[in-house]
Each structure stands twice: as C-alpha cells, then as structure tokens.
Amino acid sequence: MMKEAYIPDFEGWKKEIMESKTAVWNKEFNAKWESFLKERDERSERARKELSIPFKQRMRMRQQKTEEERMRDREFGEKDAAFMQEAREKWNKRMNLDVSLSMMDGRNSKIKSFLKYKGGSLLRILLDNYPGKASEVFKYLKLAGYEEGEMMEFIDREMGKNKDTEFLYQSSLGRKFLKEKKE
Q: Which of these, 76, 5, 89, lies nearest to 43 by C-alpha position?
C-alpha cells in the first residue's frame, strides 16, 4: 500500500493540481474582478477630486445627489462587499489546497524514507523468524508488496550476501538474480 501511495514526482504532480484547481477559480473570478476594480478606481478618483473642492461647495453637491445616484452608490457598496467575500473565499480555498498538499508532501516524504530505510528491519524480522526458509521469506516479501524481480534486489541492497541471507541466494530466485547480475 505504501508503494502505491508514494508519488515519485510529487512536485510535478503538486504543480499540476495547483494549476488545474486555481485555473477554474481564476477563470470564474478574474473577469468580474477586473471590471469591478476599474469601477472602484473611477469612484476613488471622483472622491479625490471632490476633496479638492471647498467644503461648503462639496456639501451642496452631496445634497444635490439624486436618489438614483444614492441607489448606485448603495449597489456599489453591496457589490464591493460581495466581491471582497468572494475574494476571501477564493483565498481560503487556495489556503486549504496548500495545506492539503503540504500534508501530502510530508506523507510522501515519510513513505519515501520508510521505503528507503526501514525495509532492512522488515528483512531482519523475516530472517529472524524464518531462518533457512526462503519460501516463507519470499511469501511475506510478496505480501509486503514486492514483486518477484524486486525481492532479490531488495535483499541484496539491504543486507547483501552474508551467512544470514546465503539460503536466499541459493533459491531459484536467488540463482536467477545472481545470473542476471553477472550479465
């Protein structure tokens, strides 16, 4: 199960996931966001110009605003709040995805480490429990997820040929491995 869960090219996979997820969010949001920012900038510019007008004259201008203008201002305020909420939700989705992917990255690193360094302890347990019984050792290695071609490579890598593993090299699988290794 650990071998199947391990993702060798995790960074490439992560990049692909990030691009596919964020592309959907960006497509939905960016078009509306650009037009909203343009309208917001225009309103800010008008407000800045209003501030340059003397106070009394500005107050008269505000009193002369029509109900329609007040309605537009209210609608823009609501629109502003809605866009900010949508932007926060987009940010939260992105952060949740980042957290999930970083957790997966940690899990992937642990699996890689386990597969690389803890395999020897599995072999040590099998050799202690089944000394001289190659079929039992191979049976449990197969249950652990190793295929026939990988078993002898694993044994050779983890412990090599010594007095504890000699019987494994004398099995049919071991003789085949040694023959391939010579070639």
A: 76
SS3 1: coil
Find out whether 51 and 59 touch, Cβ atoms under 8 Å: no
Do 111 and 6 meet the contact criterion of CB atoms below 8 Å apart? yes
Q: Work out the angle between the directed axes of helices 172-182 and 148-158 (0-180°, nearest 10).
A: 80
CA end-to-end distance (rounded Å), the chain:
32
pLDDT < 50 stretches in the chain: none
Q: Are 156 and 177 in contact (CB under 8 A)?
A: yes
For 64-78, the DSSP string reads T--HHHHHHHHHHHH
Query: pLDDT tens for residues 167-178?
Result: 988 898 888 888
Could you tell me what percent of the chain has a pLDDT over 70? Answer: 80
Specify the pTM. Answer: 0.42
